[in-house]
From TrEMBL:
Keyword Ribonucleoprotein: yes
Database matches in Pfam families: Ribosomal_L9_C (PF03948), Ribosomal_L9_N (PF01281)
Ribosomal protein L9 domain boundaries: 13-40
Protein name: Large ribosomal subunit protein bL9
Species of origin: uncultured Cytophagales bacterium
GO biological process terms, semicolon-separated: translation
GO molecular function: rRNA binding; structural constituent of ribosome
Chain's gene name: rplI
Length: 147
């Protein structure tokens, strides 16, 4: 079943993408939740026209994302966390803390666009991936230190 996405869905696609999904997933989840529409011929034509009209706007958004990525560059963030003597963190470091650290550096990145390569539960150096745009992904290193 082909579906045109109305919103970005992690692991599936971005807004305006034509994706092929299993019929049950499309009919029972994507379409009722308003995340997509059936890719009929008329819907494909409407989406193509919308893509043409939004092309220059999307280019500006992509350039802004590239500008944020170059601004961040090879920056290394320091995230303070309460930890025990063995170095194990009480709780874990979340995307909210990374977004807050980036905000303190002057970069506004939505926490939903940040993902970790592995869970952060002990002190040390880690890598996070920033999904700034569907064409712009940036890796940032951060160090978790005892607070």
């Amino acid at each position: 079943m082909e579906v045109i996405l109305k919103t970005d869905i992690a692991g599936l696609g971005y807004k305006g993408d034509l994706v092929t999904v299993k019929p049950g997933y499309g009919r029972n989840y994507l379409i009722p939740q308003g995340f997509g529409v059936i890719a009929s011929e008329s819907n494909k034509k409407v989406q193509a026209e919308n893509n043409r009209q939004a092309a220059h706007k999307a280019d500006k958004i992509r350039k802004d994302a590239e500008q944020i990525a170059t601004g961040i560059g090879e920056m290394q963030l320091t995230i303070p966390a309460k930890a025990g003597e063995s170095g194990k963190i009480f709780g874990k470091v979340t995307t909210v803390q990374i977004a807050e650290a980036l905000r303190n550096q002057g970069f506004e990145v939505d926490r939903k666009k940040i993902s970790f390569d592995s869970e952060v539960k002990v002190l040390g150096t880690y890598t996070a991936t920033l999904d700034l745009h569907k064409e712009v992904k940036h890796k940032i290193n951060f160090v978790v230190v005892a607070a």
